[in-house]
Every structure is written in C-alpha cells, then in structure tokens.
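Session log. Operator J.P. requested a structure for one protein chain; no other inputs attached. Running the standard single-chain path with token output.
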Amino acid sequence: MVIEEEHVFGHSEAMRRIASVAARVAESDTPVLIEGERGTGREVMARLLHRLSPRAPQPWVRLSCVSLPADLLEAELFGDERRSGGAPGRLEQAGGGTLFLKDVADLPAALQARLLHLLREGEFHHVNGRRLIRTDARIMASAGENLAALVRQGRFDPALYDRLAVAVITVPPLRERVDEIRALAEHLREALCRRLGRERPPLSPRTLELLAAYSWPGNVRELEDLLKRYVVLGEEAALCDEVLGRMHVPRAGRLPAPARVETRQAPPPGSLRAIARQAARDAEREAIRCVLEHVQWNRAEAARRLGVSYKTMLKKLEQANVGPKARRRRIS
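Structure written below.
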C-alpha cells in the first residue's frame, strides 16, 4: 500500500483508541497479533509498531505464511543446514529486530509447534540441523481471520495463540470508518500522484460522498486500486461508474467480518454505535442523491444501479426526504 505509516490512524474514536494502544505496545518486546480483514492495512500497522519501537534501527523482516509449501516455508523461517553454509532463515536475518509473520492462521500444524517452542524458549535449529540458535527477534503476526474462533474450532494451537495474543490490535474494516473515507481518499490520491508522476485534481464532493457510501469489502487496498486507476486515466466519471457497478455485488459475495467474542448490550443514545448508524444513513442519503443526479433523476434507473427494487427505492426516497420536491427546493 502507498499509505504512509503516519496516516494509519484516522480521526474516529475507534482509531484513536488503537493509536493509544499501539503507542504502548510499540515500547514493549512482547509478541503482537494484528487482526483485521484483508486490505485493512495490518502490515502497515506492524511496520509502524516496529518504527516506533526501540528496535527500529534493527532489521524488519517479513514472511508470508501462505506463499510457500510447508517444507519451503519451514526452511525460509528457520534456515536449512543443507543449503550452502547453512543458509540463515528469516529469524536469523531479523537478528535483534522484528520478524513479521503475515497470515499466521495458515501456518501448518507442525510449524505452529516449532513457533510455539521458539516463543517459549527463545531458541531454534535449522532444518536438517541440531545446533540450537538463540534469537532475540520480536515476533509480530497478522491474521485475516479471528484466531480465537479458529482455536475453538480446533484449527489453531491454543498455546501458540496465548503466546501471540499478549497484545492484540484489531484494525477495523473501512465500512466502520465512514467518516474517514473522504480524507483517506484524498491522501491516497496525493500519494499516488507523487508515486506515478501524475497531476490529478482533487475529487469532487459528490464523488467523495459516493466513495463514503460504498461498503469497501476489499477495504483500503480496494480504495487504493480504484484511485490508482483514476490517477492513471484521469477520468473521475469512470471512477464513479465503477463504484456504482460494485454496489450491485451481493453482500454474500463480500469478505466476512472477523468473528468477535463479546457481550452485546443496547447502546445508550449518542453512543459510538448510534453515531455510526447515523453516519451510514447520511452516507446512504448522499449516495442516493448522487446516483439520481447521475441519471437525471430517473428513479427506475437509479434503483437498477443501486441494486434495489423500485418499491424499495421509493421507500428510501421518502425516508431520506430525497425527491423532486427536495430537488426543486435546492434549485430555487
């Protein structure tokens, strides 16, 4: 992602809480588990924690747990004595820095056991080797699934989970950060313009409202990919058409939110949840208005583009007070 580490934290209450936790976690040497849907910026968060930690001058080393077969993954992580000179693995490369294990939920059971031993004893050996090697590397891991749920399902080692989850940071999906989407989109546009050597004007308020109304199943990465297309092609209308098209995708086809274990209570008036619901209603109203203006107030066409029935569209127009009368008031 092009988003810089200092822009990970938005201005929502949830992200301010995460920023506070991250600042404390960065100062310690404990393992860190970063959870969140794919595309939310888990690796960016991990890099930020490393940069803020006393280990910042030491190496940052990354290893994806889904990119290699089990035997090659083990050799990459721990090193292999059969390679010339006993080639060091990522653990040795990290030294006194940070080793980041991306998508640790996909780690095979045998490697989960080896990682657990490493976290308990601070030592390991090469594949096909016997010599014990001490390590001071800090372990950070990310998961696109809820590891606690996988433990309950018998799909992840509970002891390893306990070791990794000393500090847990959950990055919320973009759809729960509606009030940050506009600022984030503009930041990404500026960053992409710098990276790609292009000059593109700021997005119009109507386009930003449309972006805020979309649920972003691919999260920040999906937003970045769409804005990259805008920066390359310079067609804001095409960007709007693409977002409108994606609004037709059924919810069943979107990435599920990580399972949460919590006691749900009715929120008091003015709670964060109530504020989020109001923000979602406001965003929906603006999206409907944006689509109607895009199709010259053809309600049937707007319903088709938004993937709802004509009857549902009329009901939403009435609830949101959006319609020809409201339009005439704005024009007059």
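Operator note: Residues 226 and 297 are 26 Å apart (CA to CA).
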